[in-house]
Design brief:
Layout lengths: L8 E7 L3 E10 L2 E11 L14 H17 L8 E5 L1 H5 L3 H9 L6 E3 L2 H15 L5 E7 L4 E7 L2 E8 L3 H8 L7 H15 L3 H7 L3 E5 H13 L7 E2 H11 L18 H18 L3 E5 L3 H14 L3 H12 L4 H18 L5 H15 L12 H11 L7 H12 L18 H17 L12 E5 L2 E5 L9 H16 L3 E5 L1
Parallel strand pairs: 1-4, 4-5, 6-9, 9-11, 13-14
Antiparallel strand pairs: 1-2, 2-3, 6-7, 7-8, 10-11, 12-13
Helix pairs in contact: 4-11, 5-10, 6-10, 8-10, 9-10, 13-14, 13-17, 14-16, 14-17, 15-16, 16-17, 17-18
């Protein structure tokens, strides 16, 4: 008798500013079946000092939580786990310290994702778990930031991440748990000021449903149910009633609200102030709650990547269009780079396979900076890839892309390479060498296909084998390759060319 294969299990971890969450799911046919959820209140954001460094106590709380999560993930393959870190690690100057120590505790890479990427993934989590069709406004108030998204089906139309969260606002406006009308008004006004620059855009875009996600809005919904609003719908009027109830207490510790957990008490007033401001700024009439959020978004996208086109491909194509990239040339460089790299890494593991994919996108976008100017266009390209909003890419991946295109030509000032956390510099060097050769070999922008070119690599020493006599009819290319040899030599690398 043939046994059914065991369903694939995947897991996602959300390293939030207030809580860490882990969700594990089985892949059943075309859907996901959630089989476990885990949550720990870590309050990572409370460990950020004025210099934006995480204190040791907060780092240790985070590591202790990851150690617990790691127990549940024993035996999971790397491709089946995704860990995303949000606002606090985006802000922390010493995030690398946390990431380095985490390496020894949980054997999966931690991605620090940009705010807009966090917003997109939150929307994806909500969209997959909400039955309603039509345009949605999704609001997620976290510990350090608030994400606001308008989208339809599984596509986002407008997304922002604002630096206002229940942990950071609690520290600033409700120090030592002190609650009064003045503090509440100040926190609400500060959040309205944050909303000022985007409110008109959102109101003009409009939506059919407003949906809240994650802990802050979930807590507000549960307290409203405890107040007798059994449908759990959040409205401006109900929020005002809730605010009045909160103001009947002088300190967060004293709050005795049905449905409010002990661990949510310290940051509850700050969360209500932010949601009040969002309702007021966007003129929201009513809001429902969704169980889907960032971690569900991570899960669904992880599974989608095995079945559907990668969103990063769509992002790269959109950027190429936006910056008027010569696609014929970009494809030539991409094809050459992938051909050469396949000779260097004929059987890449997971890390090198991911890097080879990034090499392809880097090649596709290596001339994006030409839209700014030709002189120093490699630096312009790097800037665009590092600081643009790129759905599907985490900060590390954007840094890798920026590094590849920054070093595609001219002098190899390797001391200017940025620090990385998931990848190591030695992983990037072969990619840089490959892209440089692909760019040089296609320097004439010819539509004629390149002949068969072989490359061998022995660490820093590479050998390029060109067809016999080919150099004679390609003297400009030969000069470019000799220049490339000089650049490599100054960086301590060696390029040998056989003709």
């Amino acid at each position: 008798m043939i046994e059914n294969p065991r369903p694939r299990e995947i897991a996602a971890i959300d390293i939030g500013s207030n809580s860490f969450h882990m969700v594990v799911a089985r892949v059943i046919g075309q859907s996901l079946q959630i089989i476990s959820r885990h949550k720990q209140r870590v309050q990572l954001a409370s460990g950020l000092d004025e210099q934006h460094n995480l204190d040791q106590s907060a780092i240790q709380r985070g590591l202790n939580c990851l150690a617990m999560f790691a127990e549940r993930l024993q035996g999971f393959e790397p491709e089946n786990v995704r860990i995303a870190a949000t606002y606090t690690l985006r802000q922390a100057q010493n995030a690398h310290v946390f990431l380095k120590r985490a390496e020894g505790i949980i054997p999966y890479p931690i991605e620090i994702i940009p705010g807009t990427e966090e917003a997109r993934l939150i929307y994806l989590g909500v969209a997959h778990t909400q039955p309603e069709n039509g345009r949605k406004l999704v609001i997620d108030i976290g510990g350090g930031s608030t994400e606001l998204v308008i989208g339809e089906n599984f596509d986002t139309h407008l997304l922002y991440s604002k630096h206002m969260g229940c942990v950071s606002y609690n520290q600033h406006f409700f120090a030592k748990g002190k609650i009064n009308a003045k503090n509440m008004a100040a926190a609400t006004l500060a959040a309205q000021q944050k909303m000022e620059s985007i409110a008109n855009q959102y109101r003009k875009k409009s939506w059919q449903y407003a949906v809240g996600s994650s802990g802050t809005i979930k807590a507000i919904r549960e307290v409203l149910i405890g107040m007798g609003f059994s449908d759990g719908i959040i409205t401006a009027k109900r929020l005002n009633q809730l605010t009045d109830k909160i103001l009947s207490y002088k300190n967060a510790d004293e709050m005795d609200l049905t449905g409010l957990s002990e661990d949510r008490k310290p940051v509850f007033a700050a969360g209500v102030a932010i949601l009040n401001a969002v309702f007021c700024s966007l003129k929201i009439e009513e809001m429902t709650f969704s169980d889907g959020a960032l971690r569900e978004g991570l899960l669904y996208e992880m599974e989608d990547r095995f079945r559907h086109s990668d969103i990063r491909t769509r992002t790269a194509s959109a950027m190429a269009t936006q910056y008027n990239v010569d696609m014929a040339q970009a494809e030539r460089v991409k094809d050459t780079a992938e051909y050469l790299y396949s000779q260097i890494e004929p059987q890449p593991g997971l890390t090198k396979s991911e890097l080879s994919t990034l090499l392809g996108w880097g090649a596709l976008l290596h001339e994006a900076g030409l839209s700014i100017s030709y002189p120093g266009f490699h630096r312009h390209s790097a800037y665009l890839l590092r600081f643009s909003t790129m759905p599907g890419f985490n900060l590390e991946q954007q840094t890798v892309l920026a590094t590849l295109v920054r070093f595609q030509r001219k002098a190899l000032k390797l001391d200017e390479m940025p620090e990385l956390s998931i990848y190591k510099r030695k992983h990037l060097y072969p990619l840089i060498r490959t892209l440089r050769l692909a760019v040089a070999l296609n320097g004439q922008r010819s539509e004629e296909s390149l002949p068969a070119i072989a490359v061998e690599a022995n660490k820093e020493n590479w050998r390029l084998a060109l067809p016999e006599g080919w150099e004679e009819s390609n003297k400009l290319l030969a000069a470019d390759l000799r220049q490339e040899q000089e650049y490599w030599a100054k960086a301590g690398w060696q390029l040998t060319i056989d003709t």
